[in-house]
Amino acid sequence: QVQLAESGGGLVQAGGSLRLSCAASGRTFSRYTMGWFRQSPGEEREFVAAIRRNGGYTYYADSVKGRFTIARDNAKNTVSLQMDTLKPEDTAVYYCAATSTEILSTIRSAGAYPNWGQGTQVTVSS
User: Fold this and answer.
1) What is the pLDDT of residues 97-120, one digit of tens each?
2) Beta strands of 1-126 (E only): which ranges?
């Protein structure tokens, strides 16, 4: 099991940028596929981005492709989400998550991730 803690959320104007970070505990971080999800009030948790164990492959939701960038540093046990050209509809609580699976058909599903952080609020004003 891995413990996760997000940071970097806040309030930003539309068109601005934020960088989220997620710090993971333990010595097995490199064995996990890492994902970012988000959830707005009254909505289901939705997939944002994922990165495979060695960082060689990344995956994005269509709504953020070209604006968000996921990256990881296995030496520092961290994963980040650089968010540019933010829109009001990006407002949500953002969660970092970890899974041992690398099955492409499942890593976009929240149910595939047994390990979650506490979440960090991102608010984009218009």
Assistant:
1) 999 998 888 999 999 999 999 999
2) 4-7, 10-13, 18-24, 33-39, 46-51, 58-60, 68-73, 78-83, 92-99, 115-116, 120-125
